[in-house]
Amino acid sequence: xxxxxxxxxxxxxxxNLAHVExxxxxxxxxxxxxxxxxxxxxxxxxxQMGSLIxxxxxxxxxxxxxxxLIILSFVLSSVGMLGFVIILKDYLAFTSFTLTYxxxxxxxxxxxxxxxxxxxxxxxxxxxxxxxxxxx
Length: 136
Description:
Layout: H1 23-53, H2 59-87, H3 99-131
Helix pairs in contact: 1-2, 2-3
């Protein structure tokens, strides 16, 4: 006798079965955009961490470039998520988004906050470096 847990799931990766015009090409675009966003965020955070660990003549430039890469990841994530919503706009309701989508939406917001705060910290420390604080 077979139990229900022994049955193979009937999953497919054929997006044509959904009968949504442009879904296959659109999902390639969305996945690519989101993948590039993750890579950009990883490199941005790596540059920021590297600038904190190794304080040298280029630390400020590394921090600034890391912040720009994180903002780029925000833009790429936004494009990927909006593309997903545009492709499926006729089939979506507010309650039909999955937990994965809402996690990506939260990550998108955090990318924005991290990038903007990194640029703000860079401008604050630039003003402090110009004042030459003398310790007694």
